[in-house]
Amino acid sequence: MYKKSRFVLIFVVVLLTLALAAPSLAQDKVTIHWWHISTGDPGLPYFQAAADAYTAEHPNVSFDITVLENEAFKAKLVTVMQAGEPPDLFQSWGGGKLWQFADAGLLRNIAPELKGAWKDSFAATSALELYGQNGEYYGVPLSWGAVGMFYNKALFTKAGLDPEKPPTTWAELLDTVQKLKDAGITPITIGEKDKWPGHFWYGYLATREGGQDAFLKAYNREGSFTDEPFVKAFADLKQLVDLNAFQDGFLAAAYGDQETVFGNGQAAMELMGQWSPTVSKSNSESGLGIGADLGWFPFPVIDGGAGNASDVFGGGDGFSVGKNAPDEAVDFLKFLTSEENQRKGVEVGLTVPPTVKGLEDTYKDDPVLSAIVDARNNAPYFQLYYDQFLSAPLAAAILDAAESVFAGVATPEEAAQAVEDVAAVELTGS
Q1: Which of 395, 373, 427, 390 is nearest to 126 (CA)?
Q2: Of 35, 147, 382, 388, which sits with the fewest C-beta atoms within 10 Å of its C-beta?
Q3: pLDDT per residue over 188-245, tens digit each?
Q4: What is the CA radius of gyration of the chain?
Q5: In whole angstroms, what separates CA 155 from the centre of its chain?
Q6: How far apart, in whole angstroms, are the C-alpha atoms of residue 268 and residue 74?
Q7: With left for phi above 0 and alpha for psi between -120 and 50, is residue 69 left, alpha or beta?
Q8: CA-to-CA distance for 32 and 310, rounded, in angstroms?
Q9: Mean of the per-residue pLDDT values for the chain?
């Protein structure tokens, strides 16, 4: 009887111990270190709300959120990556830079979590593939679109141009620029102080002049960034600069200034990504932007260019996962890219265009966004921004070379050679 009682007592103690330990185990504290670049509306409050919603469902999880301006983010990310201490989640655009981090063992492969329903939920599959390589995935896209030409229909009309027939060729664009100038209208706004807006022009021109074949040959060292398409791309850009197509002081203007000028109706066109309408609206004096006067058209084709007229230069925003990220960070990324949260992001103008299926209703009645999605989805070749696809030194060389042409201090040949000089080291290790 004594042995039986002792056994029962021990059994009860064991059960009580497990019962008391279970909540403790379930409530192990986890901190997710998350870096993003949304320093204002709509991203800043949206991401904070998403973190708050997740922690409400997972009270053991907390967030340490670092918010940095775009250029500061890029610089600091390089520093922590070199130290081998990546954030758990960080802003990413995919492509070559991300793959370099992966090759250096700095990222977590989330392919096991991504397989199945989560992976199948993405509509922009070309975007998802830029976040992985060789069957591994290191992050997911949050929004994905196409760089293109936004324009002010009212200013086109004022210049005697048909607002429903924007230019489709490079020659027509140059003619449009001249007619806008003749009418006393600033043709194009750009924030070249930040350099990356200017590299959009060079990247698109190179894509139109040489297409996928020229880029891959130069990238794989079967060709060169001094090959004819790349020199011609800088020469095309020089044509635009020589026409004085941009606003006064464009070399000292930041990206935010570019959107302010466009949002205030002070320039007829800008080359920018899918996020532009939200930014130009919020940056405008009225807070309304140019409203119904906003139009969009694909980057013009170039007669004789080897690129397909439907090729797209662009990208979007997403998040990648650091090597030491806890499982909760991956789960939060899944939460952030759910249909429900993508819809909330669309409502505030952030996840535009969305990357998951089931949200076609969010843009079908918006002619500008629908055109961007069509361009994204139908592109036979999608070239990720050069400054994201390529290594940091080579990206910097391209940005600097484009700026030198904008500033009129380098010939197209000199700019192309400056890029090739860095590529010869970065892409061959020689």
Answers
A1: 373
A2: 388
A3: 999 999 999 999 999 999 999 999 999 999 999 999 999 999 999 999 999 999 999 9
A4: 25
A5: 29
A6: 31
A7: beta
A8: 40
A9: 92
Torsion of CA 141, 147, 148, 150, to 10 degrees: 80
Residues 6+ apart with CB under 8 A from 1: none
130 pLDDT above the threshold of 90: no
311-341 exposure pattern, b = at least 16 Cβ within 10 A, e = fewer: bbbbbbbbbbbbbebbebbbebbbbbbeeeb
Helix (H) or strand (E) holding 36: strand 30-36
Query: Residue 375 in contact with residue 363, Cβ under 8 Å?
Result: no
Q: What is the Cα–Cα distance from 167 to 293, expressed in whole angstroms?
A: 16
Q: Where are the beta strands (DSSP E) in 217-310?
A: 269-272, 294-297
Integer Cα distance of 317 and 139 in angstroms: 11
Q: Which two tokens stand for residue 42?
A: 């709509």
Q: Is the pLDDT of residue 4 over 70?
A: no
Give pTM, 2 decimals: 0.81
Segment (H or E) for 141:
strand 139-144
- Residue 132, exposed/middle/buried by CB under 10 A (0-12, 13-18, 19+)? buried
Alpha carbons within 13 angstroms on the beta-carbon side of residue 54 total 25
Reduce the DSSP state of residue 30 to 3 states and report it: strand
- Give the pLDDT of residue 125: 80
Q: What is the mean pLDDT of residues 278-303?
A: 96
The rounded distance, in Å, linking the Cα atoms of 255 and 71 is 11
